[in-house]
Design brief:
The structure is a single chain. Helices cover 26% and strands 16% of the residues. It is an alpha/beta fold and 243 residues long. It folds into two domains: 2-17 and 56-199, no CATH class; 210-243. The strands form two sheets. The protein has a seven-stranded parallel β-sheet with strand order 6-5-4-1-8-3-9, with helices on one face. α3 (120-126) links the parallel β4 and β5. It is elongated.
Length: 243
């Protein structure tokens, strides 16, 4: 039984180069908590909007399923956390896991008794499954920069070829890594998959009022300009001035 696991963060490029001037906008903490699934993204969105920048969006997911050759009995399971890739319904009879992910999920710290989003691959190894990973091209540097997996794992950068012999599919949204303004893309990606689908944890679009954030950004930008006029300084000079 060959399991294909796709983490949607595979399609959400982030800037990680410390020399890139945009790096600070992506300096995000990631934990699977309610705050990091929703509230944290409001502050992160405002950091872009206040600077007049477009919000980062997923890319490259269109047409991905067309690369997958699956058995007629294949079922797609989906959830928010990639930890549920080891759900009893998903792992039943699996002897091989092929993961498309921006992270190897094969252990970065001591492994607990239950699988988590960053070590569930270790649990498949304990079951005797063969493991392989495809990084997205935007994260090719992870081959040398990401901590070594704790279990044998064949890693390489995805070259866009076919994914053959798939018997079962699992898709994770990874909402602590992928923002709520990308939920529309995630659910469109899910809907485009041609297999029967099973929602394992009730994952649904998150309530995220992007228009309200855009209004807030416009209001705060206006307030900054008014303050600058009152202080008699040029645009942007008040920023970082301790005010």
């Amino acid at each position: 039984m060959r399991l294909l696991v796709v983490d949607f963060d595979f399609f959400f490029p982030v800037v990680e180069d410390p020399q890139d001037p945009m790096r600070f906008l992506y300096d995000w903490a990631h934990f699977e908590t309610p705050y990091h699934l929703l509230e944290a993204w409001e502050r992160r969105a405002l950091a872009f909007l206040l600077r007049g920048l477009d919000l980062p969006m997923p890319r490259g997911y269109e047409g991905f399923w067309q690369r997958v050759e699956a058995s007629p009995q294949a079922v797609l399971y989906y959830a928010d956390s990639n930890a549920l890739a080891f759900h009893p319904q998903v792992r039943r009879g699996v002897r091989e896991v092929v993961l498309f992910d921006a992270h190897h999920d094969a252990g970065y710290r001591p492994v607990g008794e239950e699988p988590s989003c960053d070590d569930w691959m270790v649990f498949y190894h304990r079951e005797g499954a063969r493991l392989s990973l495809r990084y997205p091209s935007w994260r090719a540097h992870a081959l040398v920069e990401e901590p070594e997996p704790q279990v044998p794992l064949e890693r390489r950068v995805d070259e866009g070829g076919p994914v053959l012999g798939v018997d079962r599919i699992f898709l994770a949204r990874s909402g602590a890594w992928v923002p709520p303004w990308a939920d529309g893309a995630f659910f469109a990606f899910l809907a485009s998959a041609p297999w029967p689908k099973v929602n394992l944890d009730g994952v649904a679009p998150r309530p995220f009022d992007l228009e309200a954030l855009r209004r807030r950004a416009r209001e705060e930008a206006l307030g900054l300009r008014v303050m600058e006029r009152l202080l008699g300084i040029g645009p942007g000079q008040a920023e970082g001035g301790g005010l």
